Amino acid sequence: ATTLEVIERVPAGEGVIVNSFSPDEALSYLGHSSDVFVSVIDTETLDELQRVQAGNNPQKLAVHPNGQFLYAILTQEGAVAVINTDDWQVETRIPLGTNPTTAYVQTLDS
What we know:
four-stranded antiparallel beta sheet, single chain, 8 strands, mainly beta
């Protein structure tokens, strides 16, 4: 669309604050400022496919370049939830300290 007009609204819960895309842009990930889940949206159908229970305030998101992992910064917990996109399970939580504010993922070439 070249007009930047709203073409459809996606019901995905309250407090959506951040969006990130899978590397192939087939999925949109939505973080929520007032909840504990990340919504997974199919970008073609605009259907919510999954609600991943990530933890308190998944306000910042980053996607691994290969798409296998989604990282959700849990602001209130001071941690990052590492979500496996194959089964939508939180594999681990990594402590970050007080009030983390951003996420960036970069691979290292050998």
